[in-house]
């Protein structure tokens, strides 16, 4: 993993944990639903930024190698990227 | 808050915390990016289910009251629901 | 349907048709994929605004009536709103 | 553009145009909002499938070449893919 991306991804994951604990506390306290939802939707957005970092790392490392190797490795790279793109569009 | 929804929402929030700690560990271990992304996207989807519970609770409690009160209260309810709908479509 | 919302929704639907014909032409011309995707993603976003208008109309008309009627009508209103919220989060 | 993908993308774009004209007619007729919304959300999902086809074509053609060329070309490829990923997560 690229050192700078790893550092930023871990930082972001820890912030997310804190935000999630915040939402848990808001539910326990029975805060106003719209306030809890606003927080929860902010976490979903924040996860989107984490995912973008992970996609960037993937493109700059594994995908670069898989495309260089060509053949089955490249096929696998394309399939996995399409799977990630598809999953990122379905957040039930 | 409706007791059954509160219980399910808290249960879900705690599962989400565990999943998020899992992602953090995967980043620390430098697992394969696509595996980390798959986990992270599963969390986004799981947050979607939590949000749906919170929207359900909101509709059955506050919104019901706000619509009954009418006037400014109903206006506020409509504005807030539209804001939640909009935010849920923007997860940058 | 609220007259002003209907007018704006129709206006938006017609713009969307034009944008979609544009994407079709770009595919026929084999334009650069990223340019086609940027257009296509703009259409998805534009559809989001149309949906928001429709949700607003729904809340201000049918939902107001269904909540006033109470009982099964209100149940139906809640179920339908949750269905719309869920579908709007799954755009495979 | 890969011939088979082009054919499928055009087919899908034409279906989308028909669906969009359907939504326009439903708004004109003042159909039930939830029915219009269900159609409109189906179009958003259908656009997601078109986008996936375009991403697939892009990865198999331009990105493969850009990664092979390396240097600035590869940088541009990574930046564009991240931009597409980001836009696809923001559908206001």
Describe the structure.
- The structure is a homotetramer of 92-residue chains.
- With 92 residues, chain A is mainly alpha-helical.
- The first copy, chain A, has one domain (3-88): Up-down Bundle (Methane Monooxygenase Hydroxylase, Chain G, domain 1), CATH 1.20.58.1000.
- Chain A has three helices and no strands.
- Chain A has helices spanning 3-28, 33-69, 71-88.
- The longest helix of chain A is centred in the middle third of the chain and has 37 residues, at 33-69.
- The first copy, chain A, is elongated, with a radius of gyration of 17 Å.
- Chain A starts with a helix and ends with a helix.
- The mean pLDDT of chain A is 95.
- Chains in contact: A-B, A-C, A-D, B-C, B-D, C-D.
- At the B-D interface, loops of B face loops of D.
Using CB atoms under 8 Å apart, which protein chain pair has the greatest interface?
Answer: A-B, 45 and 45 residues
| Strand elements of chain A, count | 0
- Supply the CATH class of chain A: Mainly Alpha
| Bulk shape of chain A | elongated
Summed up, the helix count of chain A is 3
What proportion strand of chain A?
Answer: under 5%
CATH topology label of chain A:
Methane Monooxygenase Hydroxylase, Chain G, domain 1
On the 0 to 100 scale, the average pLDDT of chain A is 95
What Rg of chain A is obtained from the alpha carbons, in whole angstroms? Answer: 17 Å
Note poorly predicted spans of chain A: none
Major sheet of chain A: none
What would CATH call the architecture of chain A?
Up-down Bundle
């Amino acid at each position: 993993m690229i050192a700078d991306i790893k550092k930023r991804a871990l930082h972001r994951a820890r912030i997310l944990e804190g935000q999630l604990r915040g939402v848990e506390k808001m539910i326990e306290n029975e805060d106003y639903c719209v306030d809890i939802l606003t927080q929860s939707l902010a976490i979903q957005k924040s996860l989107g930024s984490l995912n973008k970092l992970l996609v960037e790392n993937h493109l700059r490392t594994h995908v670069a190698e898989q495309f260089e190797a060509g053949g089955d490795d490249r096929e696998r790279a394309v399939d996995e990227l399409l799977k990630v793109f598809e999953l990122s569009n379905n957040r039930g």
